[in-house]
Amino acid sequence: MLDAxxxxxxxxxxxxxxxxxxxxxxxxxxxxxxxxxLHDASRDVRVVREWWSRVPESNIGWPTQxxxxxxxxxxxxxxxxxxxxxxxxxxxxKHLSEPIPLDGPRTWTPSTPAAGLERGAHLxxxxxxxxxxPSLVGIAPGIDTRGVGGYVVVDxxxxxxxxxxxxxxxxxxxxxxxxxxxLDLITKPRAAAVQPTAPSVLHPPPRNAEEIADRLVPLAATxxxxxxxxxxxxxLTVFVSRDLGLDEARIxxxxxxxxxxxxxxxxxxxxxxxxxxxxxxxxxxxxxxxASVGYWLEAAGVPELGVGLRELLSGGPARIRVAIDEDLxxxxxxxxxxxxx
Length: 341
Hints:
Layout (H helix, E strand, L loop, with lengths): L1 H13 L5 E5 L20 H10 L3 E6 L8 E5 L7 H11 L11 E3 L12 E5 L17 E4 L4 E4 L3 E2 L2 E2 L16 H8 L1 H5 E2 L2 E2 L9 H15 L4 H16 L4 H14 L5 H20 L8 H6 L2 H12 L12 H12 L3
Antiparallel strand pairs: 1-2, 2-7, 3-5, 3-6, 4-5, 8-9, 10-11
Helix pairs in contact: 1-2, 6-7, 6-8, 6-11, 7-8, 7-9, 7-12, 8-9
């Protein structure tokens, strides 16, 4: 198995795919080898060989839609009372003329399905017109997406001795295009649905901090607008993600997915993404005082985001609570005024 992991990682890199080492028998990036997570991914065979020579047991991480023309993945789950394959069948029955292609590459995941159900899988698709696909949780029962800012673990990686099976796509040409209605389902209705009057972010409730982080994307995208709101939304997203225990690379990926989901191509957005993590961390170090979730958002004039955020955070398995520093609002307002937003 150790040899198989190293050989596969090199083969993927030789095919031009980005890879990076994950934890042994785990899904998280190996922080010692790739301190910036998926942002350190490489297709340089020499780099990849060095990584797996140092930790041969490392699972293989694969950034999804690393380039606009690259594939994204539908992450299909068949546990916790849901059956993603049944959802796929129902969606395809509704869209007989443009079904989700099932004849393309797929990677079987190691999760144990509920009795009588097929295994979960990563179903690979491409987006036409180079559309960025966000990484989201719960676009339909049992179905998540792994696109911009996301990644999957691939064959022959294993979790607690249970292996991923099925080679991921080594060429884009081998991957079918997603039907337009599916791309609309992923990229459009999510933001519209996450309104204070329609608390869809909690159905089903998020199972862990990663799912809460994923659901921050459509929620934040709803309020991600050029100028002051973009700054405030980025700051809060960073703040919450930090309290969920996410590292800088993961938070940057979340912010990039928010910008893509909001179709924000403004170059200034890149500066906001780059600077937000360190700026918010600096505020937190300098001011230990805290206020309740949404306090400064409501003061800043975007109470709806505070309402949605409270709802999302209270729906976690441990009813996660996040403290917001009192001075974060003042920092955001000062920065917005200084930048003329």
